[in-house]
Amino acid sequence: MPRRILSLMLSALLLLANTAGPPELRVAAVTDGATLLLEDGRSLRLAGIEPAAPPMGAEPGQSWPLAEAARQALAELAVGQRLSVRGEARTDRHGRLLAQLVRGDGLWLQGELLARGLARVHTRPDARALAREMLAAEAGARAAERGIWRTRAYAVRPADPDALRRDRDSFQIVEGRVLRVSKAGGDAYLDFGEDWRTDVTVHIGRAVLREFVAAGIDPLSYEGRVVRVRGWVGLRAGPLIEATHPEQIERLDGAASSLRETPHPSTPPPDLSDDEEE
């Protein structure tokens, strides 16, 4: 075969490969409100969300508000559907694929679960694409009190040190006014009270601080502002949330607060007789 013809054939094959749509995924089962078992044996986690699920430390088999509803909703949305990855897929530390998923009819799975109030936004350094769109979907569900936003188990927590100590080692969304922002050793600290040794703090490490600057955010701009922070609550002196990327912190700037009274997360979930998903 002449080289010129062979070259043209190879070019055509490359063009077809580049213009072909993304490979389709087929779902065999759904294990929780954000995890899919694919027919090829791989596990896929929906990137950027935290589904309705029991917190760490809950008793094995303990019922938790809307956890089963979230699993069932994802099964209805995904099983038997043509699914493709939106953007880039990654592999997380557990060996699972981590991706945004879209159905063949254009429905975005993360957006649908958030809009139904069956998940919260939980971005990570390696899973933060479409953060703005996800936050908007979550905000709409919260304002309408859909799904988890009709229960106290998932409610936004105030930046109160005594309350957050009881939320240690759990993912929470916390709101409060930043009293002071300080920098030390290249790190930044957002303090929500007078005594940093006991009050709620958000820590932004030196490497992460560079990402805030690259995003056009000066942490000093949070001082005196009401913010919403999402992340795992740890305990160093007082309750502490480690900021690992800028999308974790929202400046509310006059937006209505989402605060509601919340129980200790290890207590039995509230009676949902008036809160069940329709």
TrEMBL record:
TNase-like domain mapped to chain residues: 21-151
Gene3D superfamilies: 2.40.50.90
Keywords noted in UniProt: Endonuclease, Hydrolase, Nuclease, Signal
GO molecular function: endonuclease activity; hydrolase activity
Keyword Cell wall biogenesis/degradation set for record: no
Keyword Methyltransferase: no
A Pfam family the protein falls into: SNase
Signal sequence coordinates: 1-22
Region ranges (Disordered): 251-278
Name of the protein this chain belongs to: Nuclease (SNase domain)
Source species: Azospirillum baldaniorum
